[in-house]
Every structure is written in structure tokens, then in C-alpha cells.
Amino acid sequence: MPTPLIECRHLHKWYSGVHALKDVSLTIQPGEVLGLVGDNGAGKSTLIKILSGVHGPDQGEILLGGAPIRLRTPKDAMRAGIETIYQYNSMVPTMSIARNLFIGREPLKAAVLGFGLLDQARMRAESVKAIADVDLHLRSPDALVGELSGGQRQGVAIARAMHFKSKLLILDEPTNHLSVKETNKVIGFVKGLKAQGVTGIFISHNMQHVFQSCDRVVAMARGEIVFDKPVAEASLDEVHEHL
Amino acid sequence: MKRLLKIYLEKPELAGIVLLIVLIGLFQWRSDGIFLSAENFRGVLGILPEVALVATGVTLLMICGEFDLSVGSVFALMPMTAAILMNDGVPFWGAVLLGLAACAMIGLINGIVTIRFGIPSFIATLGMLFMARSLTVVVSGGFPPLLPDDIPSWIFTQFIGPGQLFRTSFVWFVGVAVLISALLSLTNFGNWVKATGGFLDAASSMGIPVVRVKIACFVICSVLAGFAGLIQVLRLGSPLPSIGIGLELQAVAAAVIGGAALTGGIGTIFGAIVGALLIRVIDNGLVLSQVDANWFQFAIGALTIFAVVANAWLRRMGRRIRVGV
């Protein structure tokens, strides 16, 4: 058994008296794409928020590549190589694609105390490459993200995560509010992850999507993991029974 | 060609620039050519930096998604504080620095109150509008102090340039405007400001220190307002506690005429300057055209509404031009 990429041990989380996460333990192997399913309030979002550094667990620990790690802020998680793409989309519509790709991680030509001049040529060149790498075809890195369709935006978000060589890519319901055609495009991106050897967690309401694109399916209910099997050995009905 | 048209239609400053050109033409015609004379230009450019500096700060803050109504009061408080310090024997530059530090404090309080208590900046700075104005009157003790005779006010008010066309205040203003524009478009800080105002959730999830970015913008806005007030007082020669009343709304008008959006994320310093210039041009042009000066506020109001409507329309037109993304 190789060292898991990420391992959660006995995570607990309470929100003002509500036990949102009850003793959740989960290991993910490198290169695995895991589908996380469950109803609203099942604890999926809580688990994701802990992994992406938005909230800390009240109990339990997280190991990254076998070593314990503390994720206090989203920045900590990003530094550790955990990139999250949220359902509401983490792009600023009034900014260009190139600027969005590098929000918070801008390449600088010269800097004093962390402030400095943007290396705009590099931002444009690298964003063109990053977008092409995920098979997305966009006219120009200077186009505003607000002019892109929902699916294209998620494509840019995935390109951003890939560009920063994320070890673990978390996709939190990336197909919400998208048309069928756009959804298929995003499912295509998720399948592409597996081909590129990126480890992923794909959260979705839609069991079909998970079965199409993931290696393993994990279901949560009432703050606990109630089902965990490789997709090849699981059936849709079986998962539904546990929810 | 189509792409170029699209780019220009989507520029937020476009409506302001077109209006400026039209109005300059109109006033030039109505005033029988006096409007564009060097003598009149001197007058317009001499006062412009005061409104434009305030509008610059307000626009920066609006791009960051927040709002400052206290700038008019800070505009009065800073020079009052500085003048009192000078009368107490503090040297000129020391008094100016302390005055600006007081403005920075006010900006800090505006920012902290807005963010820590999660209230709209509209309310937090409305409160500060009254408090800072009251403080100005209180510290003046009812008798505005005189400025000492030996202060180097020429550094801010001297006429210079070909035909004595500008005041030095104009140079200061251009310097500040270039600096803030560069900050916005060339630095990572500028990227954070736009992201914070454009979509707060996205900015914070990407690890941008949104609270500190917003507070920094509040501070810059207040300091610029105070600096503008200092320039006006040095030009007039005496700090009056009543200066700058209503200025906050002129600054907001300048910002939105120049294309800044109240919702944040959109706007440019250049646009704010165009807006401020428009306000000065209207003020001056109405007088030269021998229109009753009481129409000034009417004109500013109509212009603000018109510019915002025109901007929205132009942007829609621009967006409709498909060049294939």
C-alpha cells in the first residue's frame, strides 16, 4: 500500500451545537478521483471546508503525504497543493482571464515586502498555456471572465488549479447552475484529471456524473461516511440505499 | 474594426469623455470664445485638483466595493488640525504630517467599524461625516485660526508653467493620480483591490487578505481627502470649518460619471478625473454662459443620471458585439 496522498483521521466538527461531522476518517491514494455524494446537510461541505482551510476541525487530524498538516487558512491549503473550485465559482467577473488565473499569486517583476509590479507579459503567456492545457479554446487572455459561459468559467478555474500544480483538486458541485451541454464539458474536465494523474474529490448531487468520472464513490449521511467502494464494484441502487 | 469598437464601447470612461467634449464645445460657443481662453483655463485648472483628489480616493474605495461619505468633513478637519498645530508652534511639515496622520486614523476607524461590525460603509461613514465635521468646529473653538505668514504655501499654490497656466497643486494632483492609477493597474495590490470589489467571496477564497485591502483603501481615501483640503486652505489663506460641505456627493458624482460602479470592481482613476473635470467645467461654463448659478446643482444631478444611464447602454452595446470568445 503506497502512502496515501491525504488522510483524515477522526475528524469532528460542531456548528453552534450541531454535530456536523462525526468521526470521519478518509484516505485518498495518489491519482485517485473520488466522488463524494450525499444530501444537503450530510456533512460534505463541512469536510471540504476543513480540507480547503476555510474552517479548522474541532477534533482529529489531517495528514498530507504521511505528515500531519494544519490548514488554518485557504492560503495554507493552496500552499500545500490543495486547490478548491467552488460551486459559486471562484472567478471575478469584472477581471480578465489572465488576472483571474493569478489572483493572490501574481508573478512579480520586482517586489518590496510582498507588494510589487505585476509581470503582465508572463501572466498572459502562462494563462494562454494553462487554458490550452485543459483543452479550452478561448480567444484571448484579456477577455473578461464575465463574458464567459458558466462551463468556460469552470474550465478556467480548473486550468488555474492545474497550472499551480495542485496535488489535490477539490471540485465542490462545479456543475450546479450549468446547462446540460456545459455540464458535460465539466465532466470532461474531471475525466481529464484522471488522465493527467491528478488526485481529485468531486462533490456532486448527481450520482450519474460521479459514476461517469470517478474511481471511487463515498457517500455521506448525517455527518458520517456511510458508503465507500470503488465505482467498478458499486451500483447506483446500492448507493441510494445508504442515503 | 469591430473588435476595436467593442473595446471602446466597453470602456467605462467613454460616456464621460464624450460629454466633456460636447460640453466644452457648447460653453465655448455660448461664452463667445471666452471659455477656452488661457485666463479661464487657469481658473478651472486651479480648482480642479481639490475635487479631483477627493474623487480619486473615493473611486479607489468604490472599486474596492466600499463607500466613503466622510471625505467632505475630513477635507475640513485636516487643514483645521494642521493650522492649529502651526499656531501652537509646530513646524509646517510636522503639522502637515500630523494632519495627514489624523486623516489616516479616520480612514482606519471607518474601515474597522465597517468590517468588524459588518455594517454598510454608507452608514459607518455617514456617522463619521457628522463626527469629523463637529470635531472641526470644536477644535477651531469657533474662531478659525490664521495661517502663519512664513509657511511655504507656494509649494502647493504657486502658479507655474507656460503662461502661468497651472498651480503647483496641479502637479501634486497629477503625481498622486498617476501613482494611484499605477497602483491599480500595475501592481498585485491593485489586482487585490479589483478582486475584492469585483467578487468578495472569490477574492477571499483565493487567499487575498480582503479585510486589510479594504482598510488600506479607506485609509488612502481619507488621506487624499485631507490633502485636498489642505490645498484648498492654502489657496484661500484661512481654514474655515465649513469647507467641503457637499463635497462627498460631488466626489461620488465624479466617480460614477467616470464609470465607477457602486457595486464595486469597475472604475478607473482616469474616469474619476474626467468626472471631476466635468463638474468644474459645468460650474465655470454656466457662469460664463450667464446662466443663473443656481442651476449648477441641477446640471450636476442631471449629468450624473445621464452619464450612468449612457454608460450602461454603451456597455450593453459593446457586449452585444460578438467577436467570438
Protein described:
Chain A is of the alpha/beta class. Chain A is built from eight helices and twelve strands. Chain A has helices at 44-51, 74-79, 97-101, 120-133, 150-163, 180-195, 207-213, 236-242, and strands spanning 6-15, 18-28, 33-38, 59-64, 67-69, 82-85, 108-112, 115-118, 168-172, 199-203, 216-221, 224-230. Chain A has a six-stranded mixed β-sheet, sandwiched between helices. A four-stranded antiparallel β-sheet of chain A has the order 2-1-4-5, with helices on one face. Chain A has a two-stranded antiparallel ribbon with strand order 7-8. In chain A, strand 4 (59-64) and strand 5 (67-69) form a beta hairpin. In chain A, helix 4 packs across helix 5 and helix 5 runs parallel beside helix 6 (180-195). The two termini of chain A are 30 Å apart. Chain B is mainly alpha-helical. Chain B is built from 14 helices and two strands, in the order αααααααββααααααα. Chain B has helices at residues 2-9, 14-30, 38-63, 71-87, 92-116, 121-140, 154-157, 168-186, 188-198, 200-205, 210-236, 247-257, 269-288, 296-320; strands at residues 159-160, 166-167. Chain B has a two-stranded antiparallel ribbon. In chain B, strand 1 and strand 2 form a beta hairpin. In chain B, helix 2 (14-30) runs parallel beside helix 13 (269-288) and helix 2 packs across helix 14. The model of chain B has no long low-confidence stretch (mean pLDDT 90). Chain A binds chain B through residues 54, 73-75, 78, 84, 86, 88-95, 99, 102-106, 108, 111, 114-118, 120, 138-139, 143, 147-148, 152, and chain B through 186-192, 194-195, 197-199, 201-208, 265-266, 319, 323-325.
